[in-house]
Amino acid sequence: METDSLCGGEFWKAADFAEPKKGTVQDEGVLTDSKFLDAEGKPKKKLIIGFKVGKETKKVSLNATSIGKLRDAYGKNSKQWIGKTAKGEKQVINGKDCLILIP
What we know:
By secondary structure, the chain is mainly beta. It has one domain (23-102). The chain contains one helix and six strands. Strands 1, 2, 3, 4, 5 and 6 form a six-stranded antiparallel beta sheet that branches. Strand 3 and strand 4 (56-62) form a beta hairpin. The longest helix is centred in the C-terminal third of the chain and has 11 residues, at 64-74. The radius of gyration is 14 Å and the shape is globular.
């Protein structure tokens, strides 16, 4: 039986970063459909990357803030982010706890 869903799952969450932690981008990520729709009713895209903290690698669904910060620091192509470090921290945005990656 798969037990990841019972033990925190495969994604980092904002609560995992109540205290900021440094990590490393592991891959260029994949684009997937989000649950949010654009003006035409089509799913918006989201970028999911691997992020390693200590010896543990999990996925991060990047929000626009994190993408902008990573682009500004490391370049527009997410392949350029591989191996780069960032600090993960919990921030409140529009009343919701969010995980932000800051180079």
